[in-house]
Design brief:
single chain; 119 residues; mainly beta; seven-stranded mixed sheet; 0% helix
């Protein structure tokens, strides 16, 4: 069983930065693919970034966001730069997937953290 807890969300102006952190329980954290997804009001949950041997990014965030992980701390991070109002959403951390870009592939999810980007 893996428990995930996101932190680092908040309100930021367009062009600003935020760093999200996802803390995970579990002794085999290093084995897991880890992903970040987001869901805006009235929209489906969408892939943002994932780390599974290599890094994967949605086209909408490539070059602005960066995923990293620290297996010694059982944590994964999402550095978000040059934020835009359309990045506003609840951001979710997910763990353990056979396809790291597909939400339905993940076994474990966090509760989410709100990111709001004002124009």
């Amino acid at each position: 069983q893996v428990q995930l807890k996101e932190s680092g969300g908040g309100l930021v102006q367009a062009g600003g930065s935020l760093r999200l952190r996802c803390a995970a329980s579990g002794r085999t954290f290093w084995r897991y693919a880890m992903g970040w997804f987001r869901q805006a009001p009235g929209k489906e949950r969408e892939f943002v970034a994932a780390s599974s041997g290599e890094s994967y990014y949605a086209a909408s965030v490539r070059g602005r966001f960066a995923i990293s992980r620290d297996d010694t701390e059982n944590a994964v991070y999402l550095q978000m730069n040059s934020l835009k109002p359309e990045d506003t959403a609840v951001y979710y951390c997910a763990a353990d997937a056979h396809d790291p870009t597909i939400a339905a592939s993940y076994a474990y999810w966090g509760q989410g953290t709100q990111v709001t980007v004002s124009s």
